[in-house]
């Protein structure tokens, strides 16, 4: 009992308080005298239904910096919240709040969020996860101090709607995980998201490399979380990282892993070779200089010219890609699931991945749709390359004499369910 009494005597020193799910519906005036030192307050999953009720609580907490209102249901505002607070002598209620959490609040209309602006003058983080936002007004503005916006698990299906948020001038981090976005563009890099440093867009529908090239247009983007998305479903984590680093020049972190200077140099060198090997150059063309490559090539690989000038163009790769199609090459097929030695073959460079899989089926008794084929361009190549297009040939992938092609059983992840709060 003495311990309990001692703790109760120290309520005035509490800085973090969690009252989630206590069915609180009213606030009295004793908070200021019992717990005046609260810095972080969680009153999620309660019955406080108006901003004035919340304000009558927070106005008694001058040290409050973090306010969690998850799973609350608020009566709609019809005027700026600051005006209602002023008329109720509650103007200072949210003056020092820096983090506001409104996850799972049934919100869908940004105009309601905009009415909070002047009531939260120093707000730096706004969390709006698991709501129903799909669209945003043109020219969203305000929230001059806002640096972090979390819109995970909403219903956003168009990047053009995300661009409307670029009027939030101080925004440095935006989280868009688990939405339905299929493409990224940045038409005006000098005016759109000029301060954005971190983007998380895990679990969307991005399937094209043009979206990744668009990320290179962001002036300040350095941190990116991307996987999983359809674009990288069939790529190894290593190859995906290498290609992203090659295409996006300012990244210092990808999927939570730091990118060192040496990592960047190796990735960029690999990327310029990879881009040539995987581009269908016109038949009988013999480019001898970077500028001789077709314009479509540069549209597909916007960073290629700058990287080729930095490291030197891999012209031998270009010429080999032209000549390889007509050659016969020795390869070996192996399966690490079996102890059998590699099977050596002499094949036309025009042999398709589909044909290789038929051979592997006979050799390794592994059904075609269960196979994944890999190869390393050289013994020193740090990134094994996935042969992910059954219609492409050995020449397309740049497979050379004495290359070992590895057949593995395709990994099919089990279904997973994300708990939502």
Structure description:
This protein is an alpha/beta fold. It has 13 helices and 16 strands. It has an eleven-stranded mixed sheet with strand order 1-2-3-4-5-6-7-8-9-10-11, covered by helices on one side. A five-stranded mixed sheet has the order 13-12-16-14-15, with helices on one face. A hairpin with a 2-residue loop joins β10 and β11 (257-258). The radius of gyration is 28 Å and the shape is elongated. It starts with a helix and ends in a 12-residue tail after the last strand. The relative contact order is 0.06.
Question: What's a quick, concise take on this entry?
Answer:
By secondary structure, the chain is α/β, with parallel strands linked by helices. It contains 13 helices and 16 strands. The longest helix has 17 residues, at 261-277.
Structure characteristics:
421 residues, alpha/beta, 5-stranded mixed beta sheet, 25% helix, elongated, disordered N terminus, disordered C terminus
| Binned strand content | 5-15%
Mean pLDDT: 88
- Please report the number of helical segments: 13
Number of strands: 16
Q: What is the end-to-end distance?
A: 36 Å
Uncertain regions: pLDDT < 50 for 5+ in a row? 1-5, 414-421
Strand order of the largest sheet: 1-2-3-4-5-6-7-8-9-10-11
The geometry reads as elongated
